[in-house]
Amino acid sequence: SSTPLKVAVTGAAGQIGYSLLFRLASGALLGADRPIELRLLEITPALKALEGVVMELDDCAFPTLAGVEIGDDANTIFDGVNLALLVGARPRSKGMERGDLLSANGAIFTAQGKALNEVAADDVRIGVTGNPANTNALIAMTNAPDIPKERFSALTRLDHNRAISQLAAKTGAAVTDIKKMTIWGNHSATQYPDVFHAEVGGRNAAEVVGDQGWIENDFIPTVAKRGAAIIEARGSSSAASAASATIDAARDWLLGSASDDWVSMAVASDGSYGVPEGLISSFPVTTKDGSWEIVQGLDIDDFSRSKIDASVAELAEERDAVTELGLI
Ligand code: NDP
After folding, report:
1. What domain range is 96 assigned to?
2. Which Pfam families match (predicted)?
3. What atom of ligand 1 comes closest to residue 16's alpha carbon?
């Protein structure tokens, strides 16, 4: 169809936004034939910087960019949006306690959930990138009672992509030969990147690697701490890769995952794999036409079980903390 897809991006003047907007506008989401309209939300002090970014978008003369609207009012910006990419979040600053961070973000995602509930299109899908992404998604979901729960997800696709890249480097395979990677749990240092169900060139990845020590002591911590390693090297946090993963996740959600593969998405649990119902936790999912299904029937051994349980326990703690704060 040539009706523009209305895509909202929050925190649009931030680092991730600076990479994300240009790729969205150039057709990375739905291809060169489907125009998109950008709806960009920022906090008031960042609107001037956002105007500068929009000048650059104009200057790219992207054929697929049908329009751009900016503002600081969620009810205006989210009006009629089909896809909302919630990137803006309050970063942890010096001396800020965990509770302060959760309440600052709680306020943002409560308001945005309510606004989406009021004004988004009936087919809206919401992807949360801003951290703590899983719990922010839970807050937005809880505050948008008229939007089906399965329309919310939090980003673990960057972790998924990082895991594929590390496994490809270790085995000498191309990234395209790696299938069925899974990130379980929270988008945090407790996440569990699972190679035991992954494949390298059609063979079981753990068997191809044949080195439990590498998996436990190298692969898992490297993937889980990659964000910190990038800050250390680059002097600022990963932005282009986070933007790229945000697009990968949204594209696969809308257009579908490959038939011989799955992707990782943090979605509201239905109790699968012992993850308490309602927690927004990362699972292996297949996607098709804007919906997702958790891959069922995977054998979870004791090692994987303990890793999944630890990350899910952290999610439950975050949920309890925001419940105590009255945010959900
Ligand atoms: P970034 O654009 O670098 O990051 C935005 C968010 O994405 C942060 O919460 C960050 O988490 C998160 N994130 C998720 N995955 C990753 C990843 N792999 N690497 C890096 N970040 C990741 O932040 P900026 O500070 O440059 O920009 C944020 C913008 O959001 C600002 O312009 C601010 O004004 C805006 N904002 C807008 C709001 C709104 O629209 N209502 C509300 C709050 C802020 P982490 O902090 O853990 O790095």
Report:
1. 5-154
2. Ldh_1_C, Ldh_1_N
3. 2
Last residue of a domain, one of 128, 154, 180: 154
List the Cα angle 144/25/91 in 5-degree steps. Answer: 50
Pairing outcome for strands 280-288 and 199-200:
unpaired
Ordered alpha helix ranges (H), 238-301: 240-255
Ligand 1 lined by 13 (C-beta under 6 Å) = yes
What is the rounded CA–CA span in Å between residue 64 and residue 61? 9
Asked if residue 311 lies in contact with residue 188, where contact means CB atoms within 8 angstroms, the answer is: yes
Confidence of residue 1 (pLDDT cuts 50, 70, 90): low
The catalytic residue positions are 187
Considering 138, 154, 170, which residue would you say is the last residue of a domain? 154
For 38-90, the pLDDT digits (tens) are 999 999 999 999 999 999 999 999 999 999 999 999 999 999 999 999 999 98
Provide the 3-class DSSP secondary structure of residue 74: helix
- Relative to beta strand 199-200, strand 178-179 is antiparallel
pLDDT bracket for residue 93 (50, 70, 90): confident
Q: 73 Cβ partners below 8 Å, 6+ apart? A: none
pTM above 0.95, yes or no: yes
Q: What is the CA radius of gyration of the chain?
A: 19
- Report whether 268 contacts 246 (CB < 8 A): no
C-beta 90 within 6 A of ligand 1: yes
Length of the chain in terms of residues written: 328
63 Cβ inside 6 Å of ligand 1: no
Distance 132 CA to ligand 1 centre (A): 10
99 is in an annotated binding site: no
Nearest CA to ligand 1 atom 24: 14
What proportion of the chain, given as a percentage, has pLDDT over 70?
100
Residue 258 and residue 307 share a domain: yes
Helix axes 15-25, 240-255, angle to 10 degrees: 40
| Contact by Cβ (8 Å): 156, 183 | yes
Mean pLDDT of 212-216: 98
Is any atom of ligand 1 closer than 6 Å to the C-beta of 10?
yes
Give me the mean pLDDT over the 208-213 stretch.
Answer: 98
